[in-house]
Amino acid sequence: MKKVNNIAVLTSGGDAPGMNAAIRAVVRTGIYHHLNVFGVMYGYKGMLTGEIFPMESKSVANIIQRGGTVLKTARCKEFYEADGRKKAYENLKKFGIDGLVVIGGDGSFKGAQKFSQEFDIPCIGLPGTIDKDIAGTDFTIGFDTAVNTAVEAIDKIRDTADAHDRLFIIEVMGRDAGYIGLHSGIATGAEHILIPERKTNIDDVIDDLQANERRQKMVNLIVVAEGDEFGGANEVARHVQERMPQLDTRVCILGHIQRGGSPTTMDRLLASRMGYAAVDALIGGTSNVMIGIVNNKIQYTPLDKAVKAKQKIDPEWFKIVKILAS
Amino acid sequence: MKKVNNIAVLTSGGDAPGMNAAIRAVVRTGIYHHLNVFGVMYGYKGMLTGEIFPMESKSVANIIQRGGTVLKTARCKEFYEADGRKKAYENLKKFGIDGLVVIGGDGSFKGAQKFSQEFDIPCIGLPGTIDKDIAGTDFTIGFDTAVNTAVEAIDKIRDTADAHDRLFIIEVMGRDAGYIGLHSGIATGAEHILIPERKTNIDDVIDDLQANERRQKMVNLIVVAEGDEFGGANEVARHVQERMPQLDTRVCILGHIQRGGSPTTMDRLLASRMGYAAVDALIGGTSNVMIGIVNNKIQYTPLDKAVKAKQKIDPEWFKIVKILAS
Amino acid sequence: MKKVNNIAVLTSGGDAPGMNAAIRAVVRTGIYHHLNVFGVMYGYKGMLTGEIFPMESKSVANIIQRGGTVLKTARCKEFYEADGRKKAYENLKKFGIDGLVVIGGDGSFKGAQKFSQEFDIPCIGLPGTIDKDIAGTDFTIGFDTAVNTAVEAIDKIRDTADAHDRLFIIEVMGRDAGYIGLHSGIATGAEHILIPERKTNIDDVIDDLQANERRQKMVNLIVVAEGDEFGGANEVARHVQERMPQLDTRVCILGHIQRGGSPTTMDRLLASRMGYAAVDALIGGTSNVMIGIVNNKIQYTPLDKAVKAKQKIDPEWFKIVKILAS
Amino acid sequence: MKKVNNIAVLTSGGDAPGMNAAIRAVVRTGIYHHLNVFGVMYGYKGMLTGEIFPMESKSVANIIQRGGTVLKTARCKEFYEADGRKKAYENLKKFGIDGLVVIGGDGSFKGAQKFSQEFDIPCIGLPGTIDKDIAGTDFTIGFDTAVNTAVEAIDKIRDTADAHDRLFIIEVMGRDAGYIGLHSGIATGAEHILIPERKTNIDDVIDDLQANERRQKMVNLIVVAEGDEFGGANEVARHVQERMPQLDTRVCILGHIQRGGSPTTMDRLLASRMGYAAVDALIGGTSNVMIGIVNNKIQYTPLDKAVKAKQKIDPEWFKIVKILAS
């Protein structure tokens, strides 16, 4: 087992609340174990451009509660080519870096996997994405915050829906995964939740709205994940308005507010625990795995298995949605 | 001076946070003065359909902190015709109602004005609108909450803008008035604020973005009021992308979250004070005025002067925006 | 198996955010299964005084997001005597109630257990307590909200601690359990966390504060659970000030804010799922169990085993605290 | 008129939300006018120890939304002695500083006043205190945030008060001024508000609680400013419990959470405008005044008149409190 001495940490892909807490945990756990810890700016791009700098305990003071990422993030096409990765490797070598922690989504893990196969730098991935759709972990850093942000926003919208007896069709994030939609929909008592994991039958939705209209239930919320196969909120609204033009129908697309904001307690704990475990893994000689939490225990998943996973959603939830919104 | 004995209260037009606090103040002040107080559901519509019910002190318990309006609100075209108003009058008379408090915007005041001219029911208006664009008052019920909601949302977006070095173009409410845009833009350090009260020179915006790009300032926020004469956020984005396709530009339309949520302290105080003053005015024999607050003093404005007012915005604010975002 | 036709629901013990979401789930699931559902006011006290009323779907509209409990809660000594329970039984019988859902803590479960042994009314318990210290479930309704409230408060305190280079000693709720303390302490980067599950060595705390002083680290947070065996925050502060009078030390006792407020997404989901499962259990002929969630699966625990449990806290967390706050 | 070239900014006294927004405004307005701007750490203490450093536009990026103060604050007895001020002056001179902006309370202004009398450095004061009790301004930086924080906390407490039919006695900040108490009490519908500006008649409070008890109104909130002449919340509770031992009475002392947190829109605007005006004043040759806002206009008050002012509170507010909480 090769001893690790100098590690680097970076954030990659879309930002997620809790990334700063994870960076903090990596840096301080590294220092505790007498490693030198380096920060890489702008994800893989900073590895190519050499934006790499030593971090101390103080570098991560007072960031556990901040949204975004102090190391910034960016896309980097060059890293997906051999020449780019070589340049990245050479830059890391200048600093003697012999271990890398990548906080990001499944796309970022693919890059890390490729990089560590070509060069002798072990990589550990931490699942940082609001979408909670990575195989090998029950939770991802940022999901709990994103869904709570969505819920707070929808609570506000319900005030207006209630005041006006309106139908609101609300689009939440989730291009491939419906977890934000499912959880925020249940938590706000939405009448319908449309997500990619489940085929949308728009006729059922219309039937139900019509039944509600007959019994004078005019306030209705439909939560739509952006990746629902029927289309986003605008598409659903277009369809509803065609069929029920008499309804006072409005669309809200929550958008990027779901990515930012101070992380919830759960995301801070998750990030802290995962960041700590990442350094532990590197020191212990483990490499090319993603740190996950399964049934409240740390679990390693090889980076090439830590792919975007359309987890099976328990059908009982849909029964609960139907019953509780009645 | 005719003695008032039975008053009614309703909310009309778009809902605004603090309307419930105003209803509570009207009800409890009325009861304190030994009046009977009635609630009218769905604004003027409830006057026509007779959805009128007696309210007690308990009817408004624990609502001061709630968004929306417990009396609901709706549009009502019939009320803008003579026959409709006659029907409304007859319904009020069934309950012996001899005074009316209307919480809403300038459109609602026009209706009240007309109604009280035709019939012998004095009306008092309370400015309830998030837009803060009514002549005769420094503040409207709901504005402070709406602008704080916008600011919290934009703060979250800035986390992401910062993480990615992005330009965000954010649309806030304000079809005719730019106050939400102006205040939220200053409070979040927006680089540009586009509002209806000021001609938008898009070329200046582009020049400035280009200057920022040259000095590596890539994080930029542009706040656009929906009523800006150049168009909303999407239109601005279309233009920016045409001229600066290299920028990572995103659009967020905050939408209806700005109408809901628990009112701020200021909106609760404003609503409480205005509701109290409304009953005071009715008892004192005043009628057909809107209650305003000017320089922290209650001020009456005749309902027909309480129109949508494009208040002059001090040009110094634009200088401050420019300097502080630099 | 006896068929259940009329069920009642009540909240008992200290209130916890999410209780309303649980009530809503019980009521609507009951109605879905064609049961009559009754609400009991003020916990067991309402069973004795007969404050029992039929609930409809509408009775629980728009409460999923509210803190507190619409059914109120109270202590009731009489119920812990045979005569009291007999009276309670007779009142339930007047309404034909043949099933009972009790949302509360372990004390409330003991009452339910006793009651169902004496009379033929099956009881189901739902763990509603902010302390997360009930055997047979990984989470309790209210914990996630309480800990997030504590974290938001401590975040604010850190702003001041940072501005002044101060030591803050912050007391959070938890008479018998340290989960709120542990989670909020980690999430806010507290330097020390004192909880009942772990012996507090105050000399170690002082040593550490002195070491921090030597290296000019003057901002320190100590989070203390009210039930820590050394004493609460005031006792800790007294000791620190005696030994280190030169420090600028302040005490904050967060107190009852931790019980209220709109429930988080997680608490709403947990409460919805558990309320649904409670009715399911009653219909299925199960009785005298508490509904818990273990490893994300519903699990039944006999009411007499659902006692206050000092769960073993993984010692690794204390290592993480020490490392990450360094 | 002497030209100003190099200015310094510091924060002094208790921290208040919005101080960072004010620092940002001073720095960027200074730079815009081609001044060199320096930051002084730890208030006057940093002037004595020479902790003075040049600030750029970037130094204040992304701080407008942060609580606390990036320049930190501290008490400094030495500055209130002639020798201390001399030393401070010499340190400023090393940097060529010829203008000073002091963000703080009336105590800090006295120091600035004295300093500028002895030495040729013009000083401008900005009122930064959560207490809103400075003569010469309608608002102080931090007040709006503090009062909203108190209101959010009391809203949560009301959830519990309501669930349990309890009396809560809540202490808010305000050693000399009752504005936080008055505004938060009205906004949360408190039954009684005890503040230093008004003699507390505890017998009236007891009478009223007894009257409420007779009519079964058991939920009561009493908001007490810490500086009320009768004593704080504990003293009030002691008295109530003596006279009405049957009540379920609880005390909450909100404490330091009221100082921290992200500033509200109003505090950010106020701070931005005042910071801008401070530099404007220095450039214009004005010195030794505090910048205030009166009736929405900038107003200068000589530093020695900008003292703690027990502003007269309109007695009508107390009538409103009594009526609306009924």
From TrEMBL, chains A, B, C, D:
Instruction: Identify the enzyme class.
Output: transferase
Organism whose genome encodes this protein: Chitinophaga barathri
Name of protein: ATP-dependent 6-phosphofructokinase
Q: What is the lineage of its organism?
A: Bacteria, Pseudomonadati, Bacteroidota, Chitinophagia, Chitinophagales
Q: Where in the cell is it found?
A: Cytoplasm
Q: In which residues is ADP bound?
A: R24, A25, V26, V27, R28, R158, G189, A190, E191, R215, K217, M218, V219
Gene that produces this protein: pfkA
Q: Which InterPro entries match?
A: ATP_PFK, ATP_PFK_prok-type, PFKA_ATP_prok, Phosphofructokinase_CS, Phosphofructokinase_dom, PKF_sf
Q: Name one GO molecular function term.
A: monosaccharide binding
Residue numbers binding ATP: G14, R75, C76, G105, D106, G107, S108
Q: Which family does it belong to?
A: Belongs to the phosphofructokinase type A (PFKA) family. ATP-dependent PFK group I subfamily. Prokaryotic clade 'B1' sub-subfamily.
Q: List residues binding substrate.
A: T129, I130, D131, R166, M173, G174, R175, E226, R250, H256, I257, Q258, R259
Q: Which UniProt keywords apply?
A: Allosteric enzyme, ATP-binding, Cytoplasm, Glycolysis, Kinase, Magnesium, Metal-binding, Nucleotide-binding, Transferase
Instruction: Look up keyword Metal-binding and say if it applies.
Output: yes
Keyword Disulfide bond in the entry? The reply is: no
Q: In which pathway does it act?
A: Carbohydrate degradation; glycolysis; D-glyceraldehyde 3-phosphate and glycerone phosphate from D-glucose: step 3/4
Tell me which EC number(s) this protein carries. 2.7.1.11
Q: Which GO terms describe its cellular component?
A: 6-phosphofructokinase complex
Active site location: D131
